[in-house]
Amino acid sequence: MTMLSIEGVHTFYGNIEALKGVDVSVETGEIVTLIGANGAGKSTLLMTICGRPRASKGRIVFEGRDITGTETFEIVRLGISQSPEGRRIFPRMTVLDNLQMGAISTDPSYFTEDLKRVFTLFPILERRQEQRGGTLSGGEQQMLAIGRALMSRPRLLLLDEPSLGLAPLVVKQIFEVIREINEQQKVTVFLVEQNAYHALKLAHRGYVMQTGQIALQGTGRELLGNREVRAAYLEGGH
Asked: Class for domain 1-79+155-238, per CATH?
């Protein structure tokens, strides 16, 4: 069953067309990844799904409902949550306060249960819960950003560059958690990632974006073996 359908979406920043008729689908239960070079439009697509910026053409359908013109806060309530590029945690707030901010759109009766779920995924956050977010390491801040997104109880989790700037061992840990979120917690994942090897190895399906358009698509295995993908994104090691 298709959970998210992006159909012919165009997005502009002023006079600059960032997305040029993008078609992407995400099936319920999948991990789908979107790879591409810097400036290709990957983050813009995730932000457009969330309504900032708005798609100027085309439509975005979530679980059968057209959300193209829906306000961002309502999109979160419908079951989509994003962990943004650069983490964007609240640095002066504690870890616990950051997680509480993530839960603001949900029924308070779920808070304790959801907090336990996040602490099970990221035990370090439980030990750091009274610490200010800005004093955490980069990896811990990324865990907090993902945990905050999970506190809204999403059915679709949008992850934007979760491995950016992290040490290899932390990257491996983050990707293992993404798999666990998908397999054990049954959350569908749409992942934007420059680490093409890890992303395609993890994903059921993938898309390659070039200058605001989808250039290639296939299963993760197919794209890992694709000569063009290997030359552009995988040569020189992982």
From this structure: alpha beta
